[in-house]
Design a protein that fits this description.
Elements: H1 10-16, E1 24-27, H2 34-42, E2 48-53, H3 56-65, E3 72-76, H4 82-88, E4 94-100, H5 105-109, H6 134-140, H7 143-154, H8 159-172, H9 178-188, H10 201-212, H11 214-228, E5 229-239, H12 242-256, E6 276-278, E7 283-284, H13 287-292, E8 300-306
Helix pairs in contact: 1-2, 7-8, 7-10, 8-9, 11-12
Length: 307
């Protein structure tokens, strides 16, 4: 099996980790192993790389790619388990963690995975290939629940119309495929708003996020990731849409927050001090990278170095 994926912001993210030759590093979203391979190129023989992914296709790919490299440990798990897994591996701290939160090209381009509105396939969208599918959500959630998911995770201004259209359609026939859903959504969007990108894009994003609990996992796990860092360790997160970027940005803001005492206090009594060095703005893909890989256009890298 070939896991096709072009690693986004590869040079920028790996450079941000400031690799120590004998350091320990974690790739929370191994995918095809692009970021991990670049880290390994900078590691010495005493370095270590721990790779997480919940997608069995990715696990198979990186297992084959890094076979025989004793520096590599591969973990078939959601990165939400990072603290537990590192404890089981007797790893007390790591020098860098990277997470590329985007859906991989392999997942999007493999029709039967059901992520894309460009191919006709069963409605699936499960990154882990386990658990509740998109089809089950589309056909079982109430109209209100669908509205909440589509408006919150898709930021779709016509979420009400889309939710109504889905409910009406499934009353006649169960919605089973990606193209069925894409057509229902497209017809629910007013014609003059269908010109800027595919009209089903936001709804598909929303349902995918719900299927995989992406934002819930991210918000819960960021503090665990930071806690796992050694002093001077770097947390590097690549986001692809405003919802997940906002979560990362807001958490990183808390890490760099210092004293919150009123300015007229003669001495600090709150005891707060910055926990991390955080760059003020996210790093975006260069024009050259966007030209070579259009999927990088919305990517943004944020980093936090533990003090």
């Amino acid at each position: 099996m070939e896991f096709n994926h072009i690693s986004v912001l590869l040079e920028e993210s790996v450079n941000a980790l400031d690799i120590k030759p004998d350091g320990v590093y974690v790739d929370c979203t191994a995918g095809g192993g692009g970021h991990s391979a670049e880290v390994l190129n900078k590691l010495g023989e005493n370095g270590r790389m721990i790779l997480f992914d919940r997608d069995p296709d990715a696990i198979e790919t990186v297992t084959n790619r890094f076979k025989g490299d004793e520096r590599v440990t591969i973990v078939h798990s959601n990165f939400s388990e990072i603290k537990k897994v590192l404890a089981e591996l007797d790893v007390n701290g790591v020098d860098g963690i990277i997470a590329d939160l985007g859906v991989s090209s392999h997942q999007l381009d493999t029709a039967e995975r059901g992520f894309s509105f460009h191919y006709d396939a069963p409605l699936d969208m499960r990154m882990s290939q386990q658990g509740t599918t998109a089809e089950e959500i589309v056909n079982s959630y109430s109209q209100k629940e669908l509205f909440n998911v589509i408006s919150k995770y898709g930021e779709e201004k016509f979420a009400g119309s889309v939710a109504n259209a889905i409910v009406r359609a499934r009353d006649k026939k169960r919605i089973e495929t990606t193209l069925e859903l894409a057509e229902i959504v497209s017809n629910a969007i007013p014609a003059k708003f269908r010109r800027n990108g595919h009209p089903a894009r936001k709804t598909f994003q929303a349902i995918r996020i719900e299927v995989n609990a992406e934002l819930t996992v991210l918000e819960k796990t960021l503090p665990d990731m930071f806690e796992c860092l050694n002093k001077g360790g770097v947390l590097a997160i690549i986001t692809f849409h405003s919802l997940e970027d906002r979560i990362v940005k807001d958490y990183f803001r808390t890490l760099k927050e210092g004293c919150t005492c009123p300015k007229d206090f003669p001495v600090c009594v709150c005891g707060k001090s910055p926990k991390a060095l955080v760059k003020s703005a996210g790093v975006k893909a260069t024009g050259k990278e966007v030209t070579e890989n259009n999927r990088s256009r919305s990517a943004k890298l944020r980093t936090a170095k533990k003090l």
